[in-house]
Each structure stands twice: as structure tokens, then as C-alpha cells.
Amino acid sequence: MKITALAGGVGGAKLAHGLAQILPPEDLTIIVNTGDDFEHLGLYICPDLDTVCYTLAGLANPETGWGRTGETWQTISNIEKLGGPSWFRLGDQDFATHIERMRRLKAGQSLSQVTRDFCKAWGINHTVIPMSDNPVRTIVKTDQGELAFQEYFVHQRCEPRVKAFRFDGVEEAKAAPGAREAIQSADAIIICPSNPWVSIAPILAVPGLRPEMEAKQVAAVSPIIGGRAVKGPAAKMFDELGIQPSALAVAEQYRGLVNYYVLDKIDSQLEAHVQRLSMRTLVTNTLMKTADDRKRLAEDVLNFAGNIT
Ligand code: GDP
Ligand code: CA
Prior knowledge:
- This protein is an alpha/beta fold.
- The chain has two domains: 3-136 and 171-306, Rossmann fold (3-Layer(aba) Sandwich); 137-167, no CATH class.
- Helices cover 39% and strands 19% of the residues.
- The protein contains 13 helices and 14 strands.
- A seven-stranded parallel beta sheet has the order 5-2-1-9-10-13-14, with helices on both faces.
- The longest helix has 16 residues, at 291-306.
- The structure holds guanosine-5'-diphosphate (GDP) and calcium ion (CA).
């Protein structure tokens, strides 16, 4: 079964890794959010792409959910000593990724080409595609004004209250080469348990991608379990936008797009409500603590999605 998955960072990467343990390389394409990307220290940083790639390559730091395992911090601490910005933590190995990516982008390679080459170097055989090669920047409108995404997320630790989001540049952005085709040729689309506001919404906003998906069977896994995010500000964002955070609230965000919805056993009481949104439901364990959890959830989702095509 050919699957195209949409992913942000940590939650998306975990399910993508589960899917990659089951599906052969030609049957899995992962389209990754680039709304978090930014230039920092003269480098081009792609947090979600790197989290997905490091995770698939077995290089990810499982404790933090970002960055690499076995990391050292010489460069950033020396930058700090020189008076440079150190709020965005970049490890020494991670720096190499950003330096080499910047060199290639400056030399005229596209982000998707760089990603393809890096995947090859890291031994990743499944296809990873950034949503677009054109810059799209998530801007968070908050009670303290508009903030660039990493300014909000990392520097201000998600403390400002969220009012709305916009994705700068998305109207003019083109889907990256292969992204539309991957959706067209998929038997099912899987929306990973990523933040619906700032990881999945930017991908869906890239012109052409959502309409292409609407013609498909689309399954989504809730990133909200028992009314809380496993990690990150997703639940806080729902709250601040005046919506009670729940697996149902996420399903409502995906109304009209998703027809198959996976929610956690803890949330089984929401199943009937989700079904009223014209979604079929699967209730299973959705917390991925181990590599086995990732694989088992991926299996559950594939069986669910497999029955529907
Ligand atoms: P980010 O870009 O690194 O913030 O990553 P994502 O948007 O891909 O993932 C963040 C979301 O993943 C959060 O809303 C978490 O609740 C969710 N998440 C993280 N781990 C898990 C998990 O094991 N199971 C589920 N269902 N959701 C998870
Ligand atoms: Ca992210």
C-alpha cells in the first residue's frame, strides 16, 4: 500500500519512523512542514525536516525530541562566550547539517535536492520532501504582537498568548517537486500526530496540496491524548484560541479532509462525537514511548487505512 504521510517534528517523526519500519522505501513518502524554518547565525535551519531525518536515520536524541544523540555543545558555548545568541541550542554535529545545507542552498541547490542528498548520506531510503522549496514562515499573532515562530516557540518558550497564525509566503509558494505526485499516487494519506496549528496547517496551506488530498482517503492520528499534548504547545494553543483541547477538537480542525481518525483509548468516550463529523474511528494506544510503540501504532493505522481503500 502506497502511503504519503504529513509530518511536523517530534510527533510526526515518531509515527513516520513506525511507518518506515513496515513499508518498503518505494511505498512511503513523508511531506514535512517547513513553516518553522529560519535563518539563524547565518545558517538555514529546518527544525522539522531535521527531526524527521535524524529520527529515520536513528541519529535523533530521544530525550529532547530535537537534535542529535551523543551531541556536544562546544560551538554554541563558544558563540555565547563571544556574545552571540545562544537561545537556539545547536549541537556540534547538528551545526554541520546547517553549515553544509547553507553552502548548498547558496550554490543554488533547492531545499528538496539538499534533503534528498542528505537522506542518502544518512542512509534514509524512504522519501522525505519538504512541503515547499520556497520560504514559508509561520508567524504567531500573540498578545505581545506578531512573533516569528522560533522567537515564540524557543526564545519565548511559548509563553505569549496565541491569537492566530499566518504562514508568510505560502500563497506564492509552490509545492516541492514530487509532493503533489506523492499525494496523487498514494492509496492513503496519513496525517501524523503533529501540531495541527503550526505543523499540519502550513502543509495544507501550500497551494494545491489540500485539494489533491480531498480526493483521497485521509487518516489522522490525534496528537492530543486525554486533553493534553504529549509534548509542546498544541493544547495550550487550543485553550488560548478559546477551544477546549481534546482529540475531538483536533478532529474538528480536520473536518472535510479527514475520513479516518485515530484516537487514544483514554479518549474512547469521544469516539461517537468524532463519528458525527463523518469520520470512521479507530481507538487504540497512541502514545509512542519506544520504537516498538511506533511500529505498532503504524501497523494499526495501516490496517485501518488498508481496510478503507
Ligand atoms: P514539533 O514540530 O517538534 O512540535 O512536532 P510535531 O508538531 O510533529 O509534534 C508535536 C505534537 O506531537 C504534540 O502536539 C504532541 O502532543 C504530539 N505527540 C508527541 N508524541 C506523541 C505520541 O507519542 N503520540 C501522540 N499521539 N502524539 C504525540
Ligand atoms: Ca516544528
